Amino acid sequence: MKTTDPLAGVMAFLAVAESSSFTKAAESLDIGRATVGAQIRMLEERLGVRLLQRSTRAVSLTEAGKAYREALNGLTDQVGEAERVATSLQTENVGRLKITASPDLGPIHIAPVIARYLNENPGVSIELQLSNGIADLIGNGYDLAIRGALAVEPTLIARKIGASALSVSASPDYLARYGAPMDPKDLMVHACLHFSEVRWGRVWRFEKNGEIANVPIRIAFENNSGSTLLAAAVAGAGIVLLPAFVAGPAIRDGALVPVLADWTLPIIPLQAAYPANRNIARKVRRFVEMLAQDFASHLDLR
């Protein structure tokens, strides 16, 4: 077998130099004897010197071979350590984990999982970038993206880790002043607070008993932050459409009151996406598992 990898020839040379045998060198490297010979010949051709004296009975180092071996002293151990480090990043929870996630998920729902993960895995450090945009995972070096309703590229694998229902709500103060909409079309005369990055645009979609209502809303306030829209709604700015993982606590506390509750709105699938590679690092798999477990126990994420 031919090779253009000079290191393969170096390791073959060192194995022969150590054992004074092509056969023993092949066994230690777990390759064929002919491969060892071919790699060393290519190495000698590249260097332009003979490194080994070969005879039918023995193999010995030439003067150049002895000098070359001395110069390579410790390389085998270094290569072994390099392989151990690389393998550990795949099979152990060590190294750096770079994540991108929605700003509305990060502080409340992801940060606590990160804290538990770091306590469990002290050999890992985490970088979390919060953005609503769909990041180029591979190009930007991300290990993992956590999003709602991801448009997954062929080079990525997506795992559903939860779901969150959308709801329409407003503060008691707003409803006392303007009344509650009785039909989705009533929203056209209400002040609506709109998340600017929804994929279906400035239309809110409702369904009831097979009837579909796509309502072009009157936007009073538009923003790309769910938590900002939540604060505006609680302060009485208007009617807001938000997922349960943003609005759920405010609704349960009475700060917001659901409206049009007899109509169904879309459910947002929450997904973890990572590069499509058979050798997914263990640290990535473990973080996704912890996230899925945590989301499954959360009222607003399942």
Automatic annotation (TrEMBL):
Protein name: DNA-binding transcriptional LysR family regulator
InterPro entries in alphabetical order: LysR-type_TF_proteobact-type (IPR058163), LysR_HTH_N (IPR000847), LysR_subst-bd (IPR005119), WH-like_DNA-bd_sf (IPR036388), WH_DNA-bd_sf (IPR036390)
Family annotation (Pfam families): HTH_1, LysR_substrate
Family that this chain belongs to: Belongs to the LysR transcriptional regulatory family.
UniProt organism field: Aureimonas phyllosphaerae
Keywords attached to this entry: DNA-binding, Transcription, Transcription regulation
Taxon lineage: Bacteria, Pseudomonadati, Pseudomonadota, Alphaproteobacteria, Hyphomicrobiales
Domain HTH lysR-type: 5-62
A single MF term (Gene Ontology): DNA-binding transcription factor activity
CDD domains noted in UniProt: PBP2_CrgA_like
